[in-house]
Amino acid sequence: MRKAGLGSTALLGLLLPAPLAAQARRLSESSKAHASVREAFRQTVSEVRASTVRILSGGDQAALGTVVDPGGRILTKASEIGTDLSCVLADGRELPARLLGMDDESDLALLAVDTSLPAVQWSDRTLRPGLWLATPGLDELPVAVGVLSREAHVRPLGSTPRVELGIRLRRSRRRAEVARVEVGSPAAKAGLEVGDVIVWMDEDRIRSSWTYYRILRRYEPGDEILFAIDRNGRELERAIEVRKSEDRRGPRNPQEPLWGPLSEVRAGFPEVLQHDTVLRPNQCGGPLVDLSGKAVGINIARAGRSETLALPKQVVLEVIEKLERAASAAGGRRKRAANAAAGEDRRRRALAFAADAARRAQHALAAALERLEEAQKSGDPGNIADARRALELVRRTAREARRAMQEAKQVRDRPRR
Amino acid sequence: MRRGWPLLLWTVLVACEAGRAQAGPAEQPARSSDRLARILAGGVPRDAEDLRAMEEHTQALLAKVLPAIVSIGGASGVIVEGRYVLSAGHVTRRPGRSLTVILHDGRRIRGRTLGANLRTDAGLLEVDGGGKLPSLEMGRSEALAPGQWCLMLGHPGGRKHGLSPPLRLGRIQRTSRGFLVSDCTMSAGDSGGPLLDMEGRVIGINSRISRSLDANMHVPIDAFRRDWDRLVGEEVIGAERTETAFLGVRHDPEADEALIQDVVPDSAAARAGLRPGDVIVRFGRRRVRNGGQLAWMIQRFEPGAVVTVEIRRGDRTIELRAKLGARGDR
What's the rounded mean pLDDT across residues B63-78? Predict the structure, then answer.
């Protein structure tokens, strides 16, 4: 039997064991989420539970949903729902639901059911920490309660880049060596291999794994980066198109296994309300209400052991507008798509041409940089000046070529009319 | 058997914040202040009106206590008596360490660790803020009863620029083996932050968690009172701790498997031939699913134990034998 000694660092050997308590949450009578406390919220949720639905996907509860329009429009958490959707209402009815659209950043999905339902009312209260918040379900008592933990704020993705290539680097201050290549990723398609060392990304010399991530952050999804790679002493060049990062888990922590189930998408939202309500991931998507029963937001993620996040009212209202607009535009767009197909081919060829020019310019750039480096080694001021001028020229060309490529891309991606 | 996991953050986050005005004392325009007092002392609110009274009380109290909450590296603390910071023993560790303490208004001051009780996990620092710092009163923990309402503050995930520490509201669950247990959910970084009664008095200091979300363990404030003179006198109590087995690897927290990122030089892992990039597949013949699980498994062994470690290196599977060290051996 050991005494209660205490460890203190992140080194694996120093973390202490926990008694393996049951995973299920059994609430003691003295818990703040016990039914005897939730009973006090009966009046609070008496109306809003009719504006709350349970979203089933393939028969199982995937999320809760919030009725935002009496015409049967429902918002829910996009990343939790699958196909074969239906909604269970507070009165017990189960109705099939159609997916009208999704918004990536907020992780909200707009559904439609063919019935009229009371929409949630939105709260105008000032949101000060300490505010009681209830998460209504379909029943007479809320599924859980908690308090607002802090003022509304932006929760960035943390160190997770917005874009990725599908590789993982070995952490090092001296070189950027590929430790893993994800199957089917842009990097894999371009032929990157484990052990490759990234030397250049476009015009930037990469000297550590940190530099790689820092430089990567400058790119947008769809951009193409020219990589110079050292593979066992041989220099290779590969152009790789970066894709949008799928990882929305935010900063990681080694104690996460102790935190209970978390939402897979839990960071990178526009703005969030943080509260201490304990929810399961499949209880997100429903309204979060103050004591008057009016919604201050929509629960969007179980984000940590001590935090659940909600999207505040103003974010939700903006997303609704955006999704409704997109949904009504979608009908007309299908007709126009056919006409556009012919032009598509031409635009694709133009883009390929521009991309090729950009690639060649990058190549010239790498050569010019090398020439400058050599000139600097030789120490001859005339040589250095020449190399600088040449580099400047190539840089300009490269910039223009890149711009041309971006324009070609925009033309390709522009909505057709 | 050890209880729970300490709540240190693994990375140190620092930030600064603009000043915050200190609000006046809590006011309770409730249905009746007696009724509110009875609820807060362990009762149950009956309706929205009771809840509203609790809400107003909590909001006023929060504004009053926030200025005394500090950030210490990746952990937390609370100022008492104008110049002491209560924190966790696993945060302060040993006397004489110089640490940066970030006050609620973003000001950074030097703190010096005093004594610690490594058995109760009480830790004390002294700070010099050039004048009296905003402080909280130390309460009593002996008479706390299950059901009593409480507030908890700290910096989970490290201090965030421009944001106050997130409030957790909960109730005392029980006292257990010298710990005060509440249902205020803590996570890494909350270590050292205070558990407060509904009058804003410190009744506990955040220490560790267990797997259940209702098992949040705090050092009872009476443990500080009992050892106060020895803590101020820079004594380390309970230092004759049992040794902990040590392998000497750091795993990649983002990996879905136990991927080794670093190997501590001269550690058991280094001597056994483990390298960064290896994936530990089995440890002592048991399957390892991820790094968190590995940490837990290492602890099941005594220092000096020889353990078979099966690793994946590239596409090869290799079996190594590691003689575990003790923490501090390296």
Answer: 96
Question: From the list A8, A146, A151, which residue is nearest B90 (CB)?
Answer: A8
The pLDDT of A360-365, averaged and rounded, is: 80
Residues 6 or more apart from A72 whose CB is under 8 A from it? Answer: A112, A113, A114, A115, A116, A117
Chain B contact probe: residue of A27, A30, A168 with most B CBs at under 10 A: A30
pLDDT tens-place string over residues B14-49: 222 233 334 444 444 546 789 999 999 999 999 999
Torsion angle of C-alpha atoms A29, A35, A40, A42, degrees rounded to 10: 180
Predicted local distance difference test score (pLDDT) of residue A362: 79
Q: Would you state the pLDDT for residue B16? A: 29
Phi and psi angles of residue B104, each rounded to the nearest 5 degrees, phi first: -60, -35
Question: What is the C-alpha radius of gyration for chain A, rounded to an integer number of angstroms?
Answer: 27
Cα dist from A221 to A191, B116, B151, whole Å: 19, 51, 44
CA distance B175 to B185: 16
> Which tens digits make up the pLDDT trace of B223-267?
999 999 999 999 999 876 557 788 999 888 888 899 998 888 888
Chain B partners of A18 at a C-beta cutoff of 8 Å? 3-5, 209-211, 296
Q: Of B23, B79, B104, which Cα lies nearest the Cα of B56?
A: B23
CA nearest B75: which of B131, B37, B123, B143? Answer: B123
8 Å CB contact between B245 and A243: no
Task: Report the amino acid identity of residue B148.
Answer: Q
Instruction: Pick the residue of B36, B57, B58 with the most A CBs within 10 A to test the interface with A by mutation.
Output: B58
pTM of the predicted model over 0.80: no
Furthest C-alpha separation in chain B:
72
d(CA A262, CA A275): 14
What's the rounded mean pLDDT across residues A313-319? Answer: 96
Asked if B171 contacts B146 with a C-beta cutoff of 8 angstroms, the reply is yes
Q: How many whole angstroms separate alpha carbon B111 and alpha carbon B75?
A: 13
**Cβ–Cβ < 8 Å for B274, B322:** yes
- What are A62's two structure tokens? 């995937």
> What's the confidence (pLDDT) of residue A332?
61
pLDDT digits (tens, 9 = 90+) for A44-103: 999 999 999 999 988 899 999 999 999 999 999 999 998 889 999 999 999 999 999 999
Can you say whether the dihedral through the CA atoms of A266, A260, A257, A82 is positive or negative?
negative
CA torsion angle for B207, B208, B213, B214 (degrees, to 10)? Answer: -50
E-assigned strand segments in A124-281 = 132-135, 144-155, 163-164, 167-170, 176-181, 197-201, 204-205, 224-231, 234-241, 243-244, 269-275
Query: How do beta strands A307-312 and B5-6 pair?
Result: unpaired
Residue of B52, B276, B296 lying closest to A291 (CB–CB): B52
Task: Give ∠ CA A184-A162-A220 in degrees, rounded to 5.
Answer: 85
The answer to whether the beta carbons of residues B109 and B82 sit under 8 Å apart is no
**Do the beta carbons of residue B282 and residue B310 sit within 8 Å?**
yes
Distance CA(A354)–CA(A82), nearest Å, equals 39
Chain B residues within 8 A of A33 when measuring between CB atoms? 183
A128 closest CB neighbour out of B59, B91, B246: B59
Torsion of CA B323, B324, B325, B326, to 10 degrees: -150
Which string of DSSP letters, residue by residue, matches B134-185? P---B---TT--TT-EEEE---TTS--TT-PPPPEEEEEEEEETTEEEESS-
Report the Cα–Cα distance between both ends of chain B, in Å, rounded: 25
Q: Is B168 on the interface with A (CB under 8 A)?
A: yes
Which residue does chain A place closest to B2, by CA atoms? A4
**Closest to B39 in 3D by CA, of B197, B141, B149:** B149
